[in-house]
Amino acid sequence: MFDLVHKHKIVIQIILGLLIVPFAFFGLDSYTRSMRGADDVASVDGLSISTREFSEELRQQLDRIRGLLGRGADVSGFDTPEARTGLLDSMIDRRVLATAAIKANLSISDEQLRELIAGMQPFQVEGRFSKDTYEALLRAQNMTPASFEARMRYDLTLSQLTRSVSGSAIQSHAIAERLIALAGQRREIQEAVVDVQSYLAQVKLEESAIKAYYDANPGEFRTPEQVKVDYLVLSSEQLGALDPPTEDELKAAYAARKAQFVQPEQRRLSHILIPVAADAKPAEKEAAKKNAEALLAELRKTPGKFAELAKQNSKDPGSAEKGGDLGMVAPGMMVKPFEDAAFKLKKDETSDVVETEFGYHIIRVTDLQPGKTKTVDEVRNELVRDVAREKGTRKFAEAAEAFTNLVYEQSDTLKPAAERFKLAIQHSDWIAKQASPAAGVLANPRLLEALFTPDSIQSKRNTDAVEVAQNVMVSARVAEHRAAAQLKFDEVKAQIETLLRKREALKLARKDGAARLEQLRGGKEADLKWSEPREVSRSAAQGLPPAALHAILAADPAKLPTYAGVELEGGYGLYRVNKVIAPASAGEAEKTAAMGQFGNQAGAEQFAAYIAGLRSRAKVEINQANLEKKVQP
């Protein structure tokens, strides 16, 4: 039974995670009861959100993050005041939605719920719903059928309300067409940057200003508390390397994975495409087919003209210029009708006319590369690596427990653990409590927290073994300690001067840039060196900062050239818009897709406004102290 749990692990996580976890822990009926108490995080119209509910939501959110980052990942950095406030806001939104759903008499019947659950593939055995499988999979997720069904009912009921609100948004075809035109519009521009470097020489600083900045900002000029550490790294990779695979193990691994080493047959194909639109009329399709058949008849007479005819007639932009050449193609790379026809041909054979969703094709095989199975020797390095990794992983669980006990029981030295597991004691440079990723395995927040405790610094004891990544554990001990210290003024004087000079130069550059923009808009020259013209659009910024692109696209094109300017990190950017290039008229398919996109956006905006309206009428009280309570591990 639990083989099935493992087999469907990903699917079940999706169903029990994405579909259900974001919603409250109890069914709809719990939202009709008032459960006020000192442990409430918030109340909505007298209905409480308890600390237990909130903690469960937060715990599950952190578990999902941990699932994405890896089992050993430290996710405490995601438990921030901002994240807690955002989570509580979403719970309040769902609470007011639940109240609205009850008032609207929305519900999911028992029969609807049964049909939905019975139809979920992971709960089925041989095509039929299995109660045993259902209960086993829920147990694997620490859930009961009652809690799962309550969550499902709650989720589906709110979905009814969500669809009814967002689906009522009205879209304008005229607005959609205008938005399509704006989205595809391109503008030819030239750029000139007023650079901060040109103004540094103009800045004059008094030493008193430098000293004043130092005195006003002492926290910027402190060296943090730092340590040098000795440490051990125990990993499944290292354990696997200590026990190299035998020849028999490699052969067994090869036999088990032989299918992975099969290289399928590949064919070099060329084709001629006569396209047909999906909404083409029968007469248009017939004309395209006759065109393809005429080309095929010519090829039957003169097969050597395939490349020439492809260049002249094929409408596939990726291959026409290359005589129709598509390169080497393996099974699964092309749509099925095309692939079926191509892989029946012999070398230098040409197909009949083949119809696909793109139109009519004539296919030719120009080369064949037979399939083959790689030998053991050809994949030996891969097998050695994989078998060693598997052996190391199997050994890691047992070794990790022994490693953890050893560094704890003999906490005044790392040598016993190093000798027992054949590990080298490594030595770090100075690292701070907020170490950068460059510190490697030592950058783990839990390990750093342990290193900067009095027990580690004063008593020089080993830290507990910390799993810093999947199947990687580290224990460390402080070798040297350096307290935080205030840097002297003379040590940072040059650094402050550089900072202040750049700030003042930036002010001058931006002021001059804005003045030049006004000159340009007034019809005067501004002594600027413009770049070569280039085209930009909303989908192709060509390296422009977002603010610059926004200013360019917002510039009034009524009278060209027109100008725009924005403050940049290194100065001031000036942009001359020379011309506006309208996009080609959108086809019906593009209009339909755009209407769907704009409809979704309009629906989301309408739903957001609906939620805001519900919240504005609800009485919401938040207990800030309970909101800030940490979830117990």
SSE blueprint and pairings:
Layout: H1 2-7, H2 9-18, E1 40-44, E2 47-50, H3 51-69, H4 81-103, H5 110-118, E3 124-125, E4 128-129, H6 131-140, H7 145-166, H8 173-184, E5 186-195, H9 207-216, E6 222-223, E7 226-235, H10 236-241, H11 247-256, E8 262-263, E9 266-275, H12 282-301, H13 306-313, E10 325-329, H14 336-342, E11 354-356, E12 359-369, E13 372-373, H15 380-409, H16 415-420, E14 426-427, E15 431-432, H17 445-451, H18 454-457, E16 466-469, E17 472-482, E18 485-486, H19 489-521, E19 534-537, H20 546-554, E20 562-568, E21 571-581, H21 588-617, E22 620-622, H22 624-627
Antiparallel strand pairs: 1-2, 1-22, 3-4, 5-19, 5-21, 6-18, 7-14, 7-15, 7-17, 8-13, 9-10, 9-12, 11-12, 16-17, 20-21
Would you mind describing this structure in some detail?
This protein is of the alpha+beta class and 633 residues long. The protein contains 22 helices and 22 strands. Strands 7, 14, 15, 16 and 17 form a 5-stranded antiparallel sheet that branches. The chain has a 4-stranded antiparallel sheet with strand order 19-5-21-20, with helices on both faces. Strands 10-9-12-11 form a 4-stranded antiparallel sheet, with helices on both faces. A hairpin with a 2-residue loop joins β1 and β2. The longest helix is centred in the C-terminal third of the chain and has 33 residues. The radius of gyration is 34 Å and the shape is extended.
